[in-house]
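Hi everyone, sorry if this is the wrong subforum. Our group has a chain we'd like a structural model of before ordering constructs, and none of us has done structure prediction before. Sequence below.
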Amino acid sequence: LEKYTSAITLSDMEIFVFPELMYSLVLANIMSPIIWQWRQLDCFKKLQGKSSYRKLMRLRQFIMDEFEFNLDLETWGLTSKAKELKRFEKSISHGDIAKSNALFGYHGDKYYFDVDIRRHFGLDKYDSDIIPYWKTETVEAMNAFRLKEGYRTAAGECVSLAALYAAAAFIVCSMPLEDIYMVLTPLHSQNFFDIQDGVLTNNRRLVTKTMWFNGT
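Answer:
Right subforum, don't worry. Here is the predicted structure as tokens:
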């Protein structure tokens, strides 16, 4: 029951515990009229008949222009570690959460990271039982940031941007779903598009094989 109710709210914590819920987030975006309307924009209409790769490169510029990356911790309210641990005690242990989730004290593997993950995410100020209800966003919620003070565009964090790219690649770029792979770790969410030499998404950006090997 917890998984099915989580498929409606789709908080970061819920997707951390039930990563298969990323499909729900992508499906919500595929069902959204907002992304389907992008197909009627001049920048995409003039690419009709062009390759999915060409459309994907244009999609990248569109997302760069219309969305910004944000680690929004304040908008969706607060919860507590005790409450979240109680919710998911049948699915994941307290120890496993603490070893991999920044909301519960994970600081990053010091062998790989020279930055404190909690400070990077802005979580260092939450040093008690109270933690933010860290929400992932559908494209509608991402668009709503345009109306929030301090924002000039839509916005979202890595999970939201990965889900947006997956849905938009399918809708706008005519990319088959079987060529779209979602890559989730406790600290980041990306996609791999099996097209040409392969393309990775990284927040708003795309990384091609050439970019990967020349160090971009």
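For your construct planning: The longest strand covers residues 180-184. The CA atoms of residues 191 and 201 lie 5 Å apart.
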